[in-house]
Every structure is written in C-alpha cells, then in structure tokens.
Write a structure and sequence with these properties.
alpha/beta; 7-stranded parallel sheet; globular; binds (2S)-3-(carbamoylamino)-2-methylpropanoic acid; binds zinc ion; metal ion binding; hydrolase
Length: about 500
C-alpha cells in the first residue's frame, strides 16, 4: 500500500501534553501540516472530524500473534490480529520473538519477521525473549540490537522447564541489556512456586480453570516482581514489568520507583477491564477463556486500583498480551488446567476499555489517555515522536475518536479470529470511528479496508530515554563502593582438620 495523503478537518487534536482544535494534513504517510482551515487541494481525500478527537494511533506493547505455545498456535495471526488492532484504534503493535531453549535468537527473529512481514496491516516491531543463556546468546543479542532494530529483551520467571530462566541467568541477561542499551522486560511470577502450586491443586483434584489462579496467587507475582526489580537494580539497568496483573505487584513497582529505581510497569486491557472471578464460572469454556499468566485476579478491586496507578503515572503503558485460543484449543486442558493454553484477547478493545474505565470514570484526562495508550510506549521503546504524537514529521497514524459513540463488545461483532471475547457484553462509550495508518484509511464506517502485508517493521534504536541519567546515578552509587584501608588481622586463626 503506498503511503497515503489525507486531510482531516475540524477535529480536536489530543497529544499527551495538550489538546487543540485543528485540521491535520498527512502527505505520503507523514504529517505535513497542522493548522486551522487547511484548504483541500483537488483530489485529496477529506475526513470530517467535527465534534471528534484526533488521537495518535494506539501502541500495543505486548501481543503474541500466531504464537506456537503449549502444543498449539494462537489463532489471531499477524493478519487478523492487526485487523482487530486497527478496528480498535491501535496502529502499531510490538510482538514477541520467543526462541525455544537452545534455539538461535537470530533464527527465531528471522522466522517471526517472515511471519509478520507478509501479513501485517499496520506497523509492527519485535521484542525478543531470552529463554536460555550462553556466550552465543550474548553475541546474538548484540547483533539484534546493532543490526536488527531490537531494543528490548524479555525474561520469563515462569513456565518452568520451557521459557523460564534462573535468577543467575537473568542477572547476566540484564547486564548484557545494560551494555547494549536495551530495556530488560520481565514476566514476573515465581515459576518454581507456580509449578509446586499446580501439582498441589491437581493432587487435591482441582483440575478446572479455578485451579489456575489458586496455583499462582498474586503473592507469587508480587514476590517475583520484587526479585526482578532488585536484580535489575543490582545491575543498575532499566527494567520493564510486563502484564502487571495485581495490586501486590503494582505496589512493589511503586515502592521501588519511589526509591529511584528505573522500573516501568505495563498493565494490560484484561486486568483493567475484567476480573478473574470468571474462572469460577460453571461453564467450563467460559472459565477457561480467562486463563492467562499471570492470572487475571479475582479481587474485583484490582481493575480500579490498577487504573488509579495508571492515572498517577505509577504504571506506564497499556498492552494486551493478546494471545488467543478457540474452544477446541483451550479444551486441551479440559481435564487438567495446567494444559489450558494461556492467553486472552485485548488488541481490539484495549483503547475503549481504557477510555471507559479511565476517562469516563473521571480518572484519566484526554491527554493521560494518549499517554497510557500511545505516547509513553513510544518513549519507552524509543520511537517517539515518530510514533505516539500528532505533530509535523510524525507518522500519519491517526485515530478519529468519537467520545460520544457507544458499542457493546461481543465475539459476534469483534474482528478477532477467536470465538470468545473476555469483555463480552461490556458497553463502552468512546470508540475509534476512523483509523488512519500511514495516511491511508484502514477502518471507517465499521468497515476494514486493510492491505495485508502493508505494515512496516519499525526498528527501535538502543539507549532510548529509559537510559537517561543512568550513568550519573551509577557514578553516585559507585562512590559508595570503596574498600577500607585497614591494618591486616594478625591474631590467632583456627586450624581446620583436613
Ligand atoms: C506466553 C505469553 C502469553 N500467555 C499468557 N500471558 O498467558 C506470556 O506469558 O506473556
Ligand atoms: Zn508473559
Ligand atoms: Zn463471566
Ligand atoms: Zn506475553
């Protein structure tokens, strides 16, 4: 798809720092002019945004399209997944390359890139998971940063015997991230305790989806979150906790931030929109649909409290962890919850869920909504202001947002490939009515007009804003690392028997 030219008139532009009435002209995919009363030249497509907002295209920091996982493959692939994304106002997704233990990172990266390049309907980028550690991994991380546009690596502290790494391995991976200027991301759950908890539940005959939460309560997420942050701080490198699902984990992040630790937290649409009580639903398929890791917490306060943290800036950018499985796939775990493929939807409804539970609940301003759904993610992953802002020279990824239009979310009308929607029946007011990607309309009047494979890979340079000030902090902290000049001990020493 060629980069488009389009004029959006009479809208209210909302960035994360201010909002103002203006026309916006996008030329060949780049924002060219922002001013009142831009006269349309002949033949230019014009969109009337009267009484509507213009927000920067949403950025979903966390997706797993067509992920091979737990014996099957997530059904939202890079085509359907990015169609669902743009239908909800998201125009840039960051997915995860997840090498199997022992697999070359570069080989896995090339595979994911092939999958995405042929199918994406909007721009994308790739985090890379580090599921094992060696000299080769260390070398390949450098190539990924210096030659493949990767500036973020994810460690899993859960999924024992598959993706999980040890504290020692995580320490070395974090050190490498610091050397390379890449942000260290963590799936924070105590994987050993999850493993023991799963065995305990099964031994007690608890095989249903409720066993998923019971086997890995929020204490295991909070403990691992604390451990990951402390290990990252021992290395003094920025750390990003993905899918923060509990008040306990959010509290830990907040505590360390107050002490000056460079830690970021990513809530997800699921944790901001629903609660985990659904895993106790008597309909097995319904209950299993909510199984993901870390679990969506059953405490009904969680989604409100996580939104409060987001509003205060103690949590940073909203992802989804979109990793969807249909009934017959979830049924792999019909007799044993540990075999239910973990994952839920979110990429289509993320922005409306944040608007409904944030802005409409009086917790987020329009500007904070843009921060939470777009600009903070662009800053953290070092693509701001190309992404995350409506300004001259920025990518022409713009969403016409109707703050007065409502819809009721349903699997019957969503654009996912999956046969369940965890937000089923939720009425949201505030939706994307037109989505523009690189100056082309890809969603309007409830219709998709994507061109499969038209999205571009967006490289993300290292040493982004998350590294600002780290060096100086190290200088100050290293002042304390001094040895004491003391007279050597010359008293008696016990003789150990051989
Ligand atoms: C494997 C991946 C998706 N599944 C999930 N979160 O339940 C993740 O843990 O982020
Ligand atoms: Zn995860
Ligand atoms: Zn339910
Ligand atoms: Zn994930």
């Amino acid at each position: 798809m060629t980069k488009g030219t389009i004029l959006i008139k009479n809208g209210t532009v909302v960035n994360d720092d201010r909002h103002f009435k203006s026309d916006v002209l996008v030329e060949n995919g780049i924002i060219k002019e922002i001013s009142k009363n831009i006269e349309p030249k002949d033949g230019i497509q014009v969109v009337d945004a009267t009484d509507k907002l213009l927000v920067p295209g949403g950025i979903d920091t966390h997706t797993h399209f067509q992920l091979p996982f737990m014996g099957t493959v997530s059904v939202d692939d890079f085509d359907i997944g990015t169609q669902a994304a743009v239908a909800g106002g998201t125009t840039f997704i960051i997915d995860f390359v997840i090498p199997t233990r022992g697999q070359s990172l570069l080989e896995a990266y090339d595979q994911w890139k092939r999958w995405a390049d042929e199918k994406v309907n909007c721009d994308y980028s790739l985090h890379v998971a580090i599921t094992w550690w060696s000299e080769q991994v260390s070398k390949e991380m450098e190539i990924l940063v210096k030659e493949r546009g990767v500036n973020s690596f994810k460690c899993f502290m859960a999924y024992k015997n598959s993706f999980m790494v040890t504290d020692e391995e995580m320490y070395h991976i974090f050190k490498r991230c610091k050397e390379l200027g890449a942000i260290a991301q963590v799936h924070a759950e105590n994987g050993d305790m999850v493993f023991e908890g799963q065995k305990k539940m099964l031994d007690m005959g608890i095989t249903g989806p409720e066993g998923h939460e019971l086997s890995r309560p929020e204490a295991l997420e909070a403990e691992a979150t604390n451990r990951a942050i402390i290990i990252a701080d021992r290395v003094s490198t920025p750390v990003y906790i993905v899918h923060v699902q509990s008040i306990g984990a959010a509290d830990v992040i907040c505590k360390h931030r107050k002490e000056g630790v460079r830690v970021y937290g990513e809530p997800i649409a699921a944790g901001l929109g629903v609660d985990g009580s659904h895993m106790w639903n008597h309909d097995w398929r319904h209950a299993a649909a909510f199984v993901m890791g870390p679990p969506i917490r059953p405490d009904p306060r969680t989604k409100e409290v996580l939104m409060d943290y987001l509003a205060r800036g103690d949590l940073d950018c909203v992802g989804t962890d979109n990793c969807t499985f249909c009934a017959e796939q979830k049924a792999l775990g019909k007799d044993d919850f540990t075999k239910i493929p973990n994952g839920v939807n979110g990429v289509e409804d993320r922005m409306s869920i944040v608007w409904e539970n944030g802005v409409n609940k009086g917790k987020l301003t329009w500007c904070q909504f843009v921060r939470a759904t777009s600009s903070e993610a662009a800053r953290i992953f070092n693509v701001y202001p190309r992404k995350g802002r409506i300004d001259i020279g920025c990518d022409g990824d713009i969403v016409v947002w109707d703050l007065n239009q409502s819809k009721t979310i349903s699997k019957d009308t969503h654009h996912h490939a999956v046969d369940f929607n965890i937000f089923e029946g939720i009425k949201v007011t505030g939706i994307a009515t037109t989505t523009i990607v690189a100056g082309n309309i890809v969603w309007s009047n409830n219709k998709l007009s994507c061109v499969k494979g038209s999205g571009q890979f967006v490289p993300r340079p290292p040493f982004g804003p998350v590294f600002d000030g780290i060096e100086q902090r190290d200088i100050v902290r290293n002042e304390l690392l001094r040895k004491v000049d003391r007279k050597p001990y010359d008293g008696p020493v016990i003789q150990l028997n051989k």
